[in-house]
Write a structure and sequence with these properties.
Length: about 50
């Protein structure tokens, strides 16, 4: 590995974890959006009940 450029070594060391992080973030983004919408729905329902 002595003949590899420095950027290739850095890519080998950090490329895989970065790809995994990007994959997980894009995968969980939809679930986080769904949870956010659910919390907003609960907030709306609780505010309606408190008005009555």
């Amino acid at each position: 590995m002595e003949h590899l450029p420095e950027w290739a070594v850095l890519l080998g060391n950090f490329g895989f974890p970065i790809l995994i992080a990007i994959y997980l973030l894009t995968r969980f983004e939809k679930r986080i959006d769904n949870l956010t919408n659910a919390v907003r729905d609960v907030e709306r329902l609780s505010s309606r009940k408190s008005e009555h």
